[in-house]
Amino acid sequence: PSILVSGVLGFVIGLVLFRFWLALLLAGCSCVGALSVYYLHILNPYVANFTADNYDAENRLVTLPVADTIAGAADAPSQQLGQLWAYLGQNVPNFHAGFAAVVLSAGLAGLVFGLLLPKVSRALWAASAGTLFFVGGLVALLEIMAPSALGWLVSLGAWGWVMVGIAWSASLVYNLLHCREKRPKKPTADDGEAEPAPA
User: Fold this and answer.
1) Beta pairing partners, 55
2) Could you report the per-residue pLDDT of 6-58, keeping only the tens digit for each?
3) What would you report as the CA-atom Rg of the chain, rounded to the nearest whole angstrom?
4) Within the chain, how many helices (H) and strands (E) appear?
């Protein structure tokens, strides 16, 4: 019974606060996008220097040091992230303040935008999620079926991202047009033609 009650309660809360959850999702997407831009423009060379010792240029892989124990192996990724965070804090000017400013500003902007414009937020979320799944599925399929075609797409460089941007833009426009379409009202007895009187 408790599981059923919890499920019903969660379903009701999800319906009532749908706009809020959608705004939170948009805020998360905004943070990811802003952090990606922040990484590409500022953090990329520092991260490259940090991973230079463990980077295999031929296979394009970053290897973690092998731990001696199982517990150490479980802690290795978290230790690496901690070391990277400390390294960036020591070498990147105003790293902590800049990181916090990017996350807070992008998250707050996405949250406010999602609350004020729910239809546009739905279109943005649907376009972003659809493009992500489509591109991910296409890459996985090409990797299995046609590795040469995948290599050609990767060799396009910036033009490949332009193609992804075009697909995302087309999806966004389609979703925006679909959101703005007014659903036809159901015909009522008053709207219909009067029935002829029986003879």
Assistant:
1) 62
2) 888 888 877 777 788 888 888 888 888 888 888 888 888 888 887 765 555 55
3) 25
4) 8, 2
- Summarised one tens digit per residue, pLDDT across range 123-145 is 888 888 888 888 888 888 888 88
Q: Is 61 helix (H, G, I), strand (E, B) or coil?
A: strand
Residue partners of 84: CB distance under 8 A and separation at least 6: 47, 50
Residue 167 structure tokens = 């697909």
For the chain, report the end-to-end CA distance as a whole number of angstroms: 60
d(CA 54, CA 72) in angstroms, rounded, equals 18
- Maximal C-alpha separation, the chain: 97
Residues 141 and 34: their CA atoms lie apart, in Å, by: 29
Task: Report the alpha-carbon distance of residue 96 to residue 164 in Å, rounded.
Answer: 31
Count Cβ atoms below 10 Å from residue 88 Cβ, excluding itself: 17
Using an 8 Å Cβ cutoff, are 41 and 98 in contact? no
34 close to 103: Cβ distance less than 8 angstroms: yes
Q: So where are the chain's domains? A: 24-116, 118-182
pTM for this entry = 0.60
User: What distance in Å separates the CA atoms of residue 69 and residue 23, rounded to the nearest whole number?
Assistant: 43
Reduced to 3 DSSP states, what percent helix, strand and coil does the chain have, rounded to the nearest 5?
A: 75, 0, 20
